[in-house]
Amino acid sequence: MIGYPEAPKAWWLTRGMARISGVSLPQAVVEGWLQRDELAVLIARCAACPHGAKCESWLAQSGAAQRMPDFCPNRHEIEALVN
Description:
Layout: H1 8-20, H2 25-30, H3 36-48, H4 52-61, H5 75-80
Helix pairs in contact: 1-3, 1-4
């Protein structure tokens, strides 16, 4: 199982945002669409993001959202995994 014990909140938020786009980050790594070091960059970027509380709130209320919010610093990289 892929996880980031040093940044569990950032891992949870990044996975949650990816799910909005229909992306399973662990599956993307296993299938070779995303390298583990690239995933580590996404997690680090999330951990450094100043919108953590906003992100948590957005995820809690996202319901049937089909697109990640513009404030997510990983949006472009994660959405690129869909195409």
